[in-house]
Amino acid sequence: MISVEEAQERVLAEITTIGTERVAFTDALGRILREDIIAASDVPQADNTAMDGYALRADDIANPPARLRVIEDLPAGNVATKTLEKGTAIRIMTGALIPDGADTVAHVEITDAGSDFVTVKQSLKRGTNLRKKGEDMRAGDVVLAAGTFIGAAEIGVLASVQKSVVRVGRRPTVAIISTGDEIVDVDEQRTLGKVVNSNSYSLAALAREAGAIPRMMGIVRDTREATIAAIESALECDFIISSGGVSVGAYDFVKDALDALGADTKFWQIAMKPGKPVVLSRLRDRVYFGLPGNPVSCMVSFLLFIAPALRKAMGQKSGILPPSVKTRLMGPLKSRGDRRNYLRVRVVARDGELLAYPMNAQGSGVSTSMVQANGFAIVDTGVTTVNAGETISTVLVAAPFSE
Ligand code: AMP
Ligand code: MG
């Protein structure tokens, strides 16, 4: 059995970045940028005003009140036709370029707002209320580096530099196979002893959240032949994920099937709970993840191993692994102490502190305990109890709640 960290390392070592495509920048949200974005010119193009008011010379208002002649009116987007001289002012609106000769803007609140003449009631330091040329971006700057995750702010920057089409990582396709004779699908009759397929759907949702395209491959019966056939047909996808059939039961055929197909299995057990049996295999040029069948194990192992793999494949350079933070535990946690436990918690930020509320049920089959869980508190090997009030390392898989 290998540690979680080693498993993450081995997974990422198998991942190479996939191809790119060009998309409209408005469609780039959630994608990974695959080219450096360089500012072609300074933003702002020239010094401009941050406030509505009067462009003037600071020297002219050094002894307030000061009365200045208003020689021009300058809405944003216009360029002054006159040069400002001693004793004059130009009425100016936020964003308008600073006229030649002016060095300061008196905001309208400290004036009498006059139109032919204006009285300024306070002195100002030279340069007040100016936005300097290039203070946002300088021509030649890399404003967004290849490998950046594109969120709302990045979309705004792409718009600013007029980059209407951008190169991003292709979305990887992910085949999702559920194994098990007991599994029926959502729209099927559930007779006694059968379990409704939830894994395919939670995994597909996780894949989509990670930026990939899930392909539903259905439910595969517990035979060697059916498992081989399903894996073969999934090879058209970039990644293959199966749930179930990776334990040591008499009807667990995933490892057999992979062997039969000549896969190179990198590991099949991780020293963790939930999710001890997790298979990583390379099959032809595809990466195969065999996850345990229990719904919680399935999701936890996706979040710890597969989501980072997908991010790396799309070209993300940093922030690939989920972050770990210290939280204050708000209820006791128990573990058998034989393996590292990842226990579901709801992490809430309150008064500048992160609090971790354990979910009531921690069984690997209790899918409802994943609802609202945004973290996994780590109880290490050898530790059997962590008490309420203690500080505990917690993997965050979504932002903390505000309450
Ligand atoms: P296995 O890893 O194949 O032994 O499966 C362990 C348990 O996970 C099974 O007994 C089922 O209860 C559950 N399980 C397996 N596959 C699914 C699925 N697709 N959806 C929901 N639960 C599943
Ligand atoms: Mg099974």
Strand-helix topology:
Blueprint: H1 4-14, E1 20-24, E2 37-38, E3 48-49, E4 53-56, E5 66-74, E6 88-92, E7 104-107, E8 117-120, E9 130-131, E10 142-144, H2 152-160, E11 165-169, E12 173-179, E13 183-184, E14 195-196, H3 199-209, E15 213-220, H4 224-234, E16 239-243, H5 254-260, E17 264-267, E18 272-273, E19 279-283, E20 286-291, H6 295-314, E21 324-329, E22 333-334, E23 340-350, E24 353-358, E25 375-379, E26 385-386, E27 391-396
Parallel strand pairs: 5-6, 12-15, 12-16, 13-14, 16-20, 18-23, 21-24
Antiparallel strand pairs: 1-11, 2-10, 3-9, 4-6, 4-7, 5-8, 17-19, 19-20, 21-27, 22-26, 23-24, 23-25, 25-27
Bound molecules: adenosine monophosphate (AMP) and magnesium ion.
Magnesium ion binds at residues 179-180, 244-245, 293.
Task: Note down, in words, how this protein is organized.
- With 403 residues, this protein is α/β, with parallel strands linked by helices.
- 17% of the residues lie in helices and 31% in strands.
- The chain contains six helices and 27 strands.
- A hairpin with a 2-residue loop joins strand 19 (279-283) and strand 20.
- Helix 1 packs across helix 6 (295-314), helix 3 runs parallel beside helix 6 (295-314) and helix 4 packs across helix 5 (254-260).
- The longest helix has 20 residues, at 295-314.
- The mean pLDDT is 97.
- The structure holds adenosine monophosphate (AMP) and magnesium ion (MG).
- Residues 179-180, 244-245, 293 line the site of magnesium ion.
